[in-house]
Amino acid sequence: MSLVSRPGDAAHNVARIADCLALAAKKEVGLVVFPETCVGGYASMAKLHRAELDALAEPLDGPSIRAVADAVEGSGVAAGVGFLERAADDRLFNSYVVCLPGGMRHCHRKLHAFGHRRISSGDRFTVFDTAWGVRVGILIGGDNYLVENMRMTALMGATLLIAPHRSDGANRTGDRRTQAGSIGQSLPRLLSARAGDNGMFVVFSDGVEISGSGQSSGAAMIVDPCGRILAASRARDALVSADLDRGLIDGSAGQQWLTARRPELYGLLTRSGDHRAADFEPRGATSRGAIALSFAQVSRNRPIR
């Protein structure tokens, strides 16, 4: 679900989340996925000062997450929400917590937290079992830009990926001013491809922020294990829903490809640094004896004469 958030107004944002859960309960939805940092409401925290960050940060058992958990209990609908977490050692994390009916909570800390120098990066993947018969993984925003992160989540058994996001670097017309913003704009297409690669459902939710500089455009999307988009919307506060057929998981090509992997070939993935000097098949000719290649394209609709 995309959600209109007010920057710095956690009470308002949590109230909107509770309203959305009540609506979801009427539609018999079991899980609602809200955007990254939807509780704090900021699309970007890069320019916030220390005092502003401290005012946003809450522990996992803080008032905002407790209020979300209460709304989950009242509605019977599970919810995933993003917030700025203050850890027990006082470090800050861009975190995402899934609150389940019954009181269970699963929290993921963003692995690639490049938004602010005071926000630390997480150091582990988050995958957990559910009563729905699917295993859920969480990757936040830029975590999804790296192919390895989704593959690792799939190898840990996840068959449903929660992929919250919050667009950054957009002006009023939606033009992207940064490379990260451009990647974020194409993320829905990337997620569709990677859902098919890994044979998993993907639930994507992008945030909407209203501020003095304009409004970023949110989006919501649900993708099946074959990479097909089951539901999508760009409307504000749009509750996009779909019934997930678990039978599509085992029958997907992605799950078959996972079993065909050959880990002994992937040693480079565990090494750091520049891999271009690694051992490859030797070239058959030196640059002095290389043969120049040229290509020509023939139209299918024109006969060759």
From TrEMBL:
Q: Which domain of life is it from?
A: Bacteria
Please give the InterPro entries that the UniProt record associates with this protein: Aliph_Amidase/BUP, C-N_Hydrolase, C-N_Hydrolase_sf
Q: Which UniProt keywords apply?
A: Acyltransferase, Hydrolase, Lipoprotein, Transferase
Q: Key word Disulfide bond present in the record?
A: no
CN hydrolase domain ranges (all copies): 1-246
Gene3D superfamilies attached to this UniProt entry:
Carbon-nitrogen hydrolase (3.60.110.10)
A molecular function (GO) term: hydrolase activity, acting on carbon-nitrogen (but not peptide) bonds, in linear amides
Under SUPFAM superfamilies, the record lists: Carbon-nitrogen hydrolase (SSF56317)
Protein name per its UniProtKB record: Nitrilase/cyanide hydratase and apolipoprotein N-acyltransferase
Q: Which organism is it from?
A: Paraburkholderia phytofirmans (strain DSM 17436 / LMG 22146 / PsJN) (Burkholderia phytofirmans)
